[in-house]
Design brief:
By secondary structure, the protein is of the alpha/beta class. The chain is 26% helix and 29% strand. The strands form three sheets. Strands 3, 4, 5, 6, 7, 14 and 15 form a seven-stranded mixed sheet that branches.
């Protein structure tokens, strides 16, 4: 089959080539992929997760080519969105039936491919904050894939969303997605405490967000888009934000299916916008990766497969 394989000598390590067809286990469906997406983490750390010739890819949408042998999951011919820690950047993907969801009518493959990692991460991170109706929630890195989902889902849950971006132009469209405030170039303009933080940037920004928590508040640390370490002055923090906590969040394990089904239903109803900021054929994968890493993509970068 054709696939985007890891090639250390290719631009951003991505080359369209050939890879062996996957062999599904008993609880896996074989899916013919129609669209896939790129995530900042998988592109940034590609050389650390793949051997030359390996096929990465967390997110993919397509059609079931062969149902799981154990009878679980949907039959052949069903449109689905899928998650896995590898194998999504290929024409065929073997995926556990617990990590896929049937697509509602009206949700196309591009929109679906944007959902798995970014959408489920935002959804599960917000759940960690608990009830947020009427509370102030800060989302850093709000212009990225996870950030734009978090803004929408938090606003939908009734939060007063403060969206933080690196540059003013990166804040375009966030108010329309539900952000009550949009700040740029740091958090100096966030003057009132927040009950929770969805933190995607790391580095000094995580430390700055932490001291803006209300007493007992929670910062969910998701990513490290800054690629910088974080140093926190806890002596300052204990006086400013007593009882505040930071939780290192990782989307781990399996069982993405129900969350993918929920997100896809919101897209179908017009209540969630996947925010695709770049799309094109998969022979332009290196271009997409470059745009993602240079922060010129607002939202998700999606590739058409085949």
């Amino acid at each position: 089959m054709r696939a985007l394989v890891y090639d250390p000598g290719a631009p951003h390590g991505l080359r369209l080539g050939e890879a062996p067809d996957p062999e599904p286990g008993p609880g896996q469906a074989l899916v013919r992929v129609a669209a896939t997406s790129l995530n900042f983490g998988e592109v940034t750390y590609l050389s650390q997760t793949q051997e030359p010739g390996g096929v990465a890819g967390w997110d993919a949408s397509g059609v079931v080519a062969a149902a799981a042998a154990d009878g679980s999951g949907p039959p052949a011919g069903t449109r689905v969105v899928t998650f896995g820690w590898s194998g999504g950047w290929a024409e065929l993907r073997a995926v556990g039936t617990g990590d896929l969801a049937v697509l509602p009518d009206g949700v196309d493959h591009r929109a679906a491919a944007a959902l798995p990692v970014a959408g489920v991460t935002a959804l599960r991170a917000l759940r960690r904050l608990g009830p947020i109706l009427g509370k102030r929630v800060l989302v850093t890195g709000a212009s990225g894939g996870v950030g734009r989902f978090a803004v929408q889902l938090a606003a939908r849950a009734g939060a007063h969303v403060v969206a933080a971006v690196g540059r003013p132009e990166r804040g375009a469209g966030l108010a329309e997605l539900g952000a009550a405030e949009v700040v740029s170039g740091g958090l100096a303009d966030v003057r009132e405490p927040v009950a929770g933080v969805i933190e995607n940037v790391g580095g000094p920004l995580l430390a700055d967000a932490y001291v803006r928590l209300a007493p007992g508040g929670l910062a969910v640390s998701i990513g490290k888009a800054s690629l910088e370490p974080t140093t926190i002055d806890f002596e300052q923090a204990r006086h400013v934000s007593p009882g505040a906590r930071i939780e290192a969040f990782v989307v781990a394990g399996s069982g993405f299916g129900p969350d993918l089904a929920y997100l896809a239903s919101l897209v179908a109803a017009g209540d969630l916008d996947p925010q695709i900021g770049w799309s094109g054929d998969w022979d332009r994968a290196a271009e997409a990766a470059g745009a993602l890493l240079s922060r010129t993509v607002s939202g998700k970068a999606v590739l058409d497969v085949g």
